[in-house]
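During the reporting period the student researcher (J.K.) took over the structure-prediction task from the postdoctoral fellow and processed the backlog of single-chain submissions. One of the processed entries is reproduced below for the supervisory committee.
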Amino acid sequence: MRRMRPFTSGAIALAVATVIFVLPFVFIALQAVKSKSEASRLDFTLPQQWLFWDNLAAVFQARDYQLVLAYFNSTLITVVSVTILILLSAMVGYVMQRRKTRWNAVASGALFMGLMMPPAVVPTIGLLQEIGLFKTITGMILIQVAYNLSFSILLYRAFISTIPRDLDEAALIDGAKPWQIFFRVILPLLKPVTVTNIVVQSIAIFNDFTNPLYYLPGKENVTVQLTLYNFQSMYTSQYNLLFMNILLVTVPPLIVFIFFNRQIVAGMTAGAVKG
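J.K. obtained the following structure tokens:
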């Protein structure tokens, strides 16, 4: 009886995961290859005619190839934001972990406030308008960095606590300056948590729908998530094209997650195991 329990619990977990993750993806894929009339029924039936390439071309050509511009904007925002996030959070986490002062408690409190407090949309828009960064890619990058900085710093700080101080002292005795200790000694050792940060933050920023909607309006600033509006309105809905668009938006982050899921788990648990 005891031998059967692991198989039973495993079968239940597999069934639940299938219902939650696999079935919705199959539903989206089915609607994406149907005609407009068949997709409007929103069921699991197979299409009478498979229209994958027709729907794919229609989505790309919609609104003068707006999806191509959206991919460029989303990729630019994601790459620059994640690069700034990695450098800033690694340096702040290193300083907070190594240099114990009375200001550490204040900085830690600010980090937790950044995690828990919801963003103030209206004051943030007012500030962006004052400094001339509202409706700009630069403003959107700074917003993404500010909103995700606390989580990244906490990850780096936990991981750096597992690195012995002897390495810092040995490099200092060899004549290395503080910035050389960080970039040549500490930063290469942060590879596991850096990979975790890159994957997690890239998926979150690339899939972000709310922040571009608030802070980056305008056709020329469209991101991939905002292109979902193209095929749904009050008077007519093209569900086949809408689901093809969802499929195109979902596939890149899904591929990243499939290839790097082991590194994500390793980076998230590395500090806890060594600590």
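The committee noted the following: Residues 52-98 form the longest helix (47 residues).
J.K. will present the remaining backlog at the next meeting.
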